[in-house]
Design a protein that fits this description.
CATH class of the largest domain: Alpha Beta
Radius of gyration: 30 Å
CATH architecture of the largest domain: 3-Layer(aba) Sandwich
CATH topology of the largest domain: Rossmann fold
Structural class: alpha/beta
Strand order of the largest sheet: 12-13-11-14-15-10-16
Helix content: 25-40%
Bound molecules: adenosine-5'-diphosphate, zinc ion
Distance between the termini: 50 Å
């Protein structure tokens, strides 16, 4: 099937070149070239050589053949896009909006094969007696290095070369001299770079399968019997942390492997701890491989190579592990599916959940989602019957759910307590210090965007149109403050007196983890305090280090941001304090309630993991807010009912769909102008579809690195209508010749802009 022409996508991200270009396949390449390959082609007037991907091979010329250029060469060592991945890339481009090349790069996270690593071993070629003899001879000739090596080899006839050059401190030159003399030999062997912690191999294959509980077994049996009947379903496992979800995943994988298939397991990077990995390695040995952002390029390349060759059956990793080139994919498991990190933050802004669904359709695989606090999306789909829901009610190890107190900070103020610690939290911290038990204090700054609230009555200023809280903005020059809505741009002057109760304590919340640490030192001088936040976890291993220090009981109190609610189990933690639950509640974002509920539930789940009783203190100015009330009661269903009613009323996802169009510009009027032009076009061309167009307005972060950010939102019940609107937006961009990267599209955004 030696075709004459190739249609090629060029590696340039610009709307104008976002289409295949036709090239002649030279005779010399006809036998080797294939769809999905990376090739070098002359491009543009100067015929500069650039990279491109072959999308199609054909014998039909679409243009005047005399004008077609020839492919220059095949890129050696490049990873080809598999045909399934091409289909997936096209789906991603269509449904999220981006150029084809950006979509291709997304499905091809490893693009270049790295040379395999070589393992070199120094081997003794003489008997050990002779080696000792030689060592003596060298010693007499004062050739110390040679003597040392021969002596070492007398004891151990094969030693890794980097041990010899490292620990034994012997130069390569010395080794070569001994090799020339015929006493030693250097053996070379290709190996894969294995990105596993050193002592991981001890755990390999040593795991005993646990006997599943009846409710665990029921989940596995239902999913596997569907699978054996040829039914490829979608499933949601809703179960508190410790209810045995991971054990269910492993059993599912084992059974899927028995069927001759392979498995992808997505775990948010931050939750991908050593303990979790050990469990998988213990059970599946070197059939498992891992992806994470710490892997070197070589390690990544090797993991994908092993997967492509069918040498592994399981990959565990964050979002991008979805694009592992498994031939026989049977199941995709997404743990903690509610995590916002499953949404890509660069173009194309895809969601791993939706892409996984599509991948499973293409590959004929099943999709399993798991969470203690399912996303509204997943639970909504379960309610509609699109996903089958399983509930794992209880913790396997038993233990009571912790006792939760909601502390009303307005009352504290009335009683004259202006400290960040409520009286209850203060006395419980003291109590734990006396008993030698540990506490975790949690300050949630995620989504923190300068909301203003009244400390006396809890009043929060909200947008009358969008029902999200307004954020404080201070003009850099005039120092005048105002309150703004990040969705629609509604703006009012900053008030100094609470409109509800007249109090002057209407303030922004500014405490940070560092101040809390200082306060703890002052109030509890005897306490040993550890702090974990973005500042203290800059270096590669500091995150694990702090957590293991705390696990080893080298501190009494751990203060931190949302990072501390994940990962390790701490047996001695019996108190969890959430200092200001309101911070996430009033992020100016329609998901604020959902995030708050998730964070509070997770944080509460850290207390009392072992036999000891746990207590949780939630401090808030809004004790009656449904996210707080239901989180304290650990009542997901109750929360879901109220939250979905709000989404339904306001047409927020998943009840409807929302597309954000973010315009980036060097100066504010230009950005505004573009966004306004797009808004007009949408209103004009899609009038009969009745989309709801909101904005344009300045984004929550209005300027980053001197780039102005203007945002426009479009809401509609029907995703397909938004896709058509997106296509129209892309057409405008192409017609006007705007830079593609300066207009970003985001479907059902997980964070406000
Ligand atoms: P989750 O993933 O829901 O947090 P895990 O699968 O990690 O739950 O289970 C919590 C703990 O209970 C783990 O230590 C696990 O080894 C143990 N466990 C889970 N299932 C069983 C079982 N069937 N028998 C005994 N121990 C179990
Ligand atoms: Zn007030
Ligand atoms: Zn608004």
């Amino acid at each position: 099937m030696a075709c004459r022409y190739a249609n090629i996508i060029v590696d340039i991200s610009h709307e104008k070149v976002d289409r295949p270009f036709q090239y002649i396949v030279p005779d010399s390449l006809k036998e080797r070239i294939d769809v999905g390959m990376a090739v070098m082609i002359p491009f543009g007037k100067g015929n500069k050589l650039i990279k491109g991907y072959v999308m199609e091979l054909t014998d039909k010329a679409d243009y005047d053949v005399s004008k077609l250029k020839q492919i220059d060469s095949i890129v050696e060592g490049a990873v080809s896009v598999q045909s399934d991945a091409l289909v997936l890339a096209d789906w991603i481009r269509t449904n999220y909006g981006s150029t084809m090349i950006a979509a291709l790069k997304t499905v091809l996270p490893v693009r270049q094969k790295m040379k395999q690593a070589v393992k070199k071993t120094v081997c003794c070629k003489v008997s050990s007696d002779r080696a000792l003899e030689l060592s003596g001879e060298f010693e007499n000739k004062h050739q110390k290095a040679k003597a040392r090596l021969m002596q070492a080899l007398a004891l151990q006839p094969e030693i890794l070369q980097n041990m010899v050059t490292g620990k034994l401190n012997i130069s390569l030159k010395t080794i070569r001299l001994l090799e020339q003399a015929g006493y030693v030999e250097i053996k070379q062997e290709n190996t894969y770079r294995m990105p596993f912690p050193k002592n991981m191999s001890e755990a390999w294959g040593n795991g005993k399968d646990k006997k599943l509980s009846d409710s665990q077994a029921a989940v596995v049996n239902d999913i596997i019997s569907d699978f054996k009947l040829g039914k490829r379903g979608e499933y949601l496992i809703h179960g508190v942390t410790g209810s045995g979800k991971t054990e269910v995943y492993m059993e599912l994988i084992a059974r899927i492997i028995d069927e001759g298939k392979q498995a992808i397991v997505l775990i948010p990077e931050i939750a991908l701890t050593y303990q979790t990995l050990v469990r998988f390695f213990a059970r599946f040995g070197d059939r498992v491989s891992v992806m994470n952002s710490r892997l070197s390029q070589g390690e990544r390349s090797d993991q994908f190579e092993r997967a492509a060759r069918g040498e592994t059956d399981i990959i565990i990793g964050p979002r991008s592990a979805l694009f592992t080139p498994f031939e026989r994919l049977g199941i995709v498991i997404i743990d903690e599916e509610h995590e916002p990190s499953y949404k890509s933050d660069s173009m194309p802004k895809y969601h791993a959940r939706a892409v996984a669904r599509q991948l499973c359709r293409i590959k004929g695989a099943s999709l399993v989602l798991g969470s203690a606090t399912p996303s509204l999306e997943a639970y909504y789909a379960a309610q509609k019957g699109d996903i089958r829901l399983f509930e794992l009610g209880e913790r396997i190890a038993g233990g009571h759910l912790p006792k939760v107190y909601i502390e009303d900070l307005r009352e504290e103020l009335k009683k004259g307590n202006r400290s960040i610690f409520s009286r209850r939290l203060y006395s419980l911290i003291n109590d734990r210090l006396q008993k030698g038990e540990q506490s975790m204090l949690f300050l949630n700054r995620r989504g923190y965007a300068g909301f203003v609230s009244c400390r006396a009555c809890g009043y929060v200023v909200k947008c009358p149109h969008c029902d999200v809280s307004l954020s404080e903005h201070t003009d850099a020059r005039s120092r005048v403050s105002s309150l703004k809505c990040h969705y629609c741009g509604y703006e009012i002057p900053r008030m100094n007196i609470c409109p509800q109760c007249g109090s002057k304590y209407i303030l922004g919340f500014r405490a940070g983890t560092q101040q809390i640490e200082e306060l703890l030192h002052k109030d509890f001088p005897q306490a040993r305090v550890l702090r974990m936040d973005a500042d203290t976890t800059r270096t590669r291993d500091s995150y694990e280090e702090i957590l293991s220090q705390f696990a080893n009981e080298e501190a009494d109190i751990l203060v931190g941001t949302q990072m501390i609610v994940k990962g390790h189990d701490f047996a001695k933690v019996t108190l969890v304090g959430i200092l200001a639950a309101d911070m996430s509640l009033y992020a100016s974002d329609y998901r604020a309630g959902e995030r708050t509920f998730q964070l509070l539930t997770q944080a509460a789940g850290r207390a009392g993991r072992s036999g000891l009783e746990g207590e949780v203190v939630i401090q808030t100015y809004q004790p009656e807010h449904y996210a707080i009330v239901h989180a304290a009661a650990q009542d997901y269903k109750g929360f879901y009912e109220e939250e979905i009613a709000y989404r339904d009323m306001m047409l927020y996802p998943p009840a409807a769909h929302m597309m954000a169009v973010l315009v980036l510009s060097d100066n504010e009027p230009d950005g505004r102008g573009c966004a306004a032009e797009l808004a007009d076009m949408i209103k004009r061309c899609f009038d009969s579809d009745r989309p709801i167009v909101i904005g344009p307005s300045q984004a929550a972060v209005g300027r980053i690195n001197d780039i102005y950010r203007t945002v426009l939102y479009v809401k509609h019940k029907n995703y397909d209508v938004l896709v058509r609107i997106k296509d129209a937006v892309e057409n405008v961009i192409a017609e006007k010749g705007w830079n593609r990267d300066s207009v970003q599209i985001d479907f059902d955004p997980v964070n406000a802009y």
